[in-house]
Amino acid sequence: MDTAFSQGTLCVQGGYTPRVGEPRIPPIVQSTTYRYDDLEQLHRLMTLQEFGFKYSRTGNPTVSAFEQRVNLLEGGVAAVATASGQAANALVMTNLLHAGDHVVAAATLYGGSFSLLHNTLPKFGISTSFFNPEAPAEEIARLFRPNTRVLFGETIGNPGLNILDFDKLAGLSRRFDVPFVVDNTLASPVLCNPFRHGAHIVTHSASKYMDGHGTSIGGVVVEGGGYAWDKGKFPDFTEPDESYGGVRYAQDFPQSPFIIKARAHMLRDFGACLNPQNAFLFTVGLETLPLRLEAHSRNALALAEFLSAREEVSWVNYPGLSVPGRERLGRYFNQPWGGGVLTFGLRGDFAAINRFVKRLKLTTLAVHVGDARTYVLHPASTTHAQLDEAQLALAGISRDMIRVSLGIETTADILADFAQALSAKE
Ligand SMILES: *Cc1c(COP(=O)(O)O)cnc(C)c1O
């Protein structure tokens, strides 16, 4: 599919072009296995001399249609889908890092990503220094070490909802020659394309807006090109991979060494691949992504404005409502939309917050974000319950914070639900 098409068209048609008589919709290829005629053919595939489907852990036609659609939407060079968003971020880290390496990451990360970096990777000898994303570049620069191999952040922090200062981080990535990895889940490719702003690798939890209907867990990693792997910091990319007949990813596959290694090596060994059923649902979900994000954003802005005027509410945070968010939204976002998630502070103690949550009717308590239904969550007592006070503060979470993921229901019904839950007296 021609990349010259705009996003709305790529969402619907990108990544799959049927030949005459083939299904118009990317079919679900529910097969682990593919047929070959001769041993030499299969040998070429197994040694990366040729590319094709051999076993669905490392590639499947339905999954491939999804990967290619996301790749086109992000403007990347190649993509690989994973079993979940967590698997996507873990794949990036294991594809890049060795014991003894170091990561510099925003402190305002999704709870699962924070845990991966803070609790789990240290057990494999990989350490992370976290920074406040609003800190000046010079302060963040002091965290870089000779063994730093990844700079990691999220386009929109979850649940801090801070928009990343891409120029500042891209500058640090260039200065220290460290690949810049961005989790673009909450923005989706419709709101932001991090490759245009200096990122080298983009990850997504497809379980959120790409699915859009809360049906499936999955993830995807996209390579943007433009990182020189051959300057000595990444021997896995420049030295022969003996497990693949001595291929050198950077030299042999200069177009997309990161994704070819991630698929051929990491999916082969760790196996966290996406299944075709979920890939199909994501591909269908992507068709309406721009329409849904506009509706999610419209509802979120309306609720943000409604809550701002309520005396029960002490503060409201929504990307684009205040500086520097508004300025960054204008600079980095493809659309004038802030996305579907907002946070606010409710006056009162934990019991009052719990009563408010219970009184909501149309809106339900759920850990999820980014599907058609409106959800609330109290991060401090749930997703981020393991964090201490200092970590909570650094992650941009307060005890009174309620996170709302706006669905695409009718705006007036959502506002009425919040109004009745705020107004009810014991
Ligand atoms: C949900 C989420 C993840 C993890 O994705 P799963 O599909 O749930 O594993 C990672 N990053 C962000 C920003 C998320 O919102």
TrEMBL record:
Keywords linked to the UniProt accession: Pyridoxal phosphate
Chain ranges passing through the membrane: none
Regions annotated as coiled coil: none
MF (Gene Ontology): cysteine synthase activity; O-acetylhomoserine aminocarboxypropyltransferase activity; pyridoxal phosphate binding
Source organism, top-level taxon: Bacteria
Keyword Cell membrane recorded: no
A Pfam cross-reference name: Cys_Met_Meta_PP
Family matches, as InterPro entries: Cys/Met-Metab_PyrdxlP-dep_enz, OAc-hSer/O-AcSer_sulfhydrylase
Entry annotated with the keyword Metal-binding: no
One record GO biological process: L-homocysteine biosynthetic process
Cofactor needs: pyridoxal 5'-phosphate
Family annotation (NCBIfam families): OAH_OAS_sulfhy
The protein, known as: O-acetylhomoserine aminocarboxypropyltransferase/cysteine synthase
Organism: Azospira inquinata
